[in-house]
């Protein structure tokens, strides 16, 4: 009768060891997830994370809320497993190199990118937030977009778009209505509706740098781009699938950067010929 392999040999087996390690990580990962809503007082000892926004950004990124490491370090997307900074670089949003979380302050001036969150309070993970406070946060976000007027708003995660949709449409988004990427322009955020039927009217006129169309009809808002969550706990899509979705936004930002550079060259030459969307920051 053949002898059974010893426990030591099984422990030295690289395949068995790898499988055991993966199982252990899975068990630990499950324990890291919270059980549900947690009162704001649970983490009120953590400092708030400031927004990094300047007027007329190319894109304002909207996260769910600060995690514990992010709030503690004071850097957006600070957890080492978070894919935000790798995806910014891979998509061409920060084309020269991958930034460290501590370099977040350089995003607005150097790359015309900014950061904020739909909920400002910190939690261990998103399950500790209530759906109601996320919907309330969507209204606050819309006011913020109206004030700062970015060209586009990138919602970093499906749950953020679900909250914005519910705030705007007073109902949940249907499965067939959801998609990643740029949304229809009727979903623009921060729109300043000065007149009835503003959206159709404003698109017909040329806008000045304040977003006015010359007829007092206001600003037709920032395009909404729905991106994947960058959290290390979000495993619904592969890394490649996430990179493909983010690449669409990266391509659009690259195009707008070139258009802004061309506009600045024309201004320096003493002649201003606005491109389709004019902004002062390049």
List keywords for this structure.
9 helices, alpha/beta, globular, 5 strands, 39% helix, disordered C terminus, 282 residues
Give a verbal description of the structure.
This protein is an alpha/beta fold. Helices cover 39% and strands 8% of the residues. It has nine helices and five strands; from the N terminus they run H-H-E-H-H-H-E-H-E-H-E-H-E-H. The protein has helices at 7-12, 14-32, 68-73, 84-90, 107-111, 131-148, 158-169, 198-204, 239-268; strands at residues 59-63, 113-117, 152-156, 181-182, 223-227. The chain has a five-stranded mixed sheet, with helices on both faces. Helix 6 (131-148) crosses helix 7. The relative contact order is 0.14.
Structural topology:
Blueprint: H1 7-12, H2 14-32, E1 59-63, H3 68-73, H4 84-90, H5 107-111, E2 113-117, H6 131-148, E3 152-156, H7 158-169, E4 181-182, H8 198-204, E5 223-227, H9 239-268
Parallel strand pairs: 1-2, 1-3, 3-5
Antiparallel strand pairs: 4-5
Helix pairs in contact: 6-7
Query: Structural class, judged by helices and strands?
Result: alpha/beta
| C-alpha termini separation | 77 Å
The total count of helices amounts to 9
Binned, the helix content reads 25-40%
Strand content: 5-15%
The main β sheet shows up as: 5 strands, mixed
Q: Give the C-alpha Rg.
A: 22 Å
Spatial order of the strands in the main sheet?
2-1-3-5-4
Give helix and strand order, one letter per element, not per position.
HHEHHHEHEHEHEH
Low-confidence sequence ranges: 2-31, 195-216, 275-282
């Amino acid at each position: 009768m053949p002898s059974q392999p010893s426990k030591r040999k099984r422990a030295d087996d690289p395949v068995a060891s790898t499988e055991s390690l993966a199982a252990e990580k899975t068990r630990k990962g499950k324990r890291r997830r919270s059980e549900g809503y947690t009162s704001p007082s649970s983490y009120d000892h953590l400092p708030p994370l400031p927004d990094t926004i300047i007027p007329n950004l190319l894109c304002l990124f909207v996260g769910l809320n600060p995690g514990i490491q992010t709030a503690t370090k004071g850097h957006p997307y600070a957890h080492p497993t978070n894919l935000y900074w790798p995806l910014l670089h891979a998509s061409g949003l920060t084309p020269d190199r991958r930034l460290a979380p501590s370099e977040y302050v350089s995003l607005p001036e150097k790359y015309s990118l900014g950061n904020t969150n739909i909920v400002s309070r910190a939690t261990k993970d998103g399950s500790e937030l209530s759906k109601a406070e996320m919907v309330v946060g969507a209204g606050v976000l819309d006011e913020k977009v109206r004030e700062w007027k970015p060209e586009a708003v990138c919602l970093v995660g499906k749950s953020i778009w679900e909250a914005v949709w519910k705030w705007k449409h007073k109902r949940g988004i249907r499965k067939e209505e959801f998609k990643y990427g740029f949304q229809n322009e009727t979903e623009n955020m921060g729109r300043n509706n000065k007149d009835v039927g503003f959206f159709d009217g404003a698109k017909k006129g040329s806008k000045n740098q304040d977003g006015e169309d010359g007829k007092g009809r206001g600003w037709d808002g920032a395009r909404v781009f729905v991106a994947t969550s960058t959290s290390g706990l979000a495993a619904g899509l592969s890394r490649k699938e996430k990179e493909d979705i983010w690449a669409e936004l990266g391509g659009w930002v690259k195009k707008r950067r070139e258009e802004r550079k061309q506009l600045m060259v024309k201004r320096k030459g003493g002649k201003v010929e606005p491109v389709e969307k004019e902004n002062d920051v390049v």
